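re: that chain from earlier
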Amino acid sequence: MYANRRTISAILCGLAAVAATPAFAQFQPTRPIEIVAHGGPGSGNDGFARTLAALFEKEKLVNVRIQVSNKPGGGSTTASAYLAGKAGDAHTLGVFTNIWLTDPLVQQAAQVNLYKTLTPVARVVIEPGLFVVRADAPWKTLKDFIEDAKANPGKLKMSGGSITARENLVRQILMKQTGANYAFISFPSGSERMAALLGGHVNLMMIDPGEGIEQVRAGKLKVLAQLADSRIPAFKDVPTVKESGYELPKIPQIRGVVGPPNMPTDALAYYEGLFKRLAASAGWKQYIESNYFEDGYLSAAASKKFLEEYEADIRVQLQATGAKVVR
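^ sequence. v structure.
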């Protein structure tokens, strides 16, 4: 018997659908993959990019070398502009955080939109935060610090990354809610921020749990509060910011991966599948667990939708603090 036209058409449509899925993507990298980080060496963004490179090798997920390129400057603007200049490139990726959304909102010069100009590949991590001070600091709680900052305006200092990073947005919201006034000192790398805190040049820092737990265990840092929906098991005796008496809007610190503008469809499918496999690997699960992160994997389409909605939330939060929003 001969198949009728309807049957043949159905078979062809089915084959086309299968061929379009990431598992059947035709693209394979033919040269080293460059991962762009907006922070300098030792920053959280740099460490994340290098972790990805190491896990790709450990889990044998790619057959080419991974090269991390640091493009610090202007928050995310240097890195995002570099990536935007690689339109159509299938061998360059960037690792983004919240500031890739906030920079274009507050900097006229930041022309690259994370989800409109560039090509979202995956959201992969959500990070809680810890408010830490030196172990010998006089404050036992976040409220102690806030009350001191109210009584002594401008005396206390907080170290952080870009002025558009989550820690500074949280600072501005807390100051507006409480009337406290403490300075924000920006440093290009995580190691410099930590050195400033341990050296007594600043008084407060917000870090991710994996970054600070060894310093806490060594008796060098004290945790005042944690920015998380619920207490992290490793810090079960430390209250959340809400438990400390402060209501903050949800400001998840996200990390994800983005490609250049007009990334070829088959390359996007390849990388989307690559990060999905990474998220299911034993090495990735160990990384998430040991750093007290939340596995925040989203597909390319879901990541784009999330970023669009989160940008709108951040715009409202910035406006509520009195920040000038240019877009």
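Residues 220 and 325 are 38 Å apart (CA to CA).
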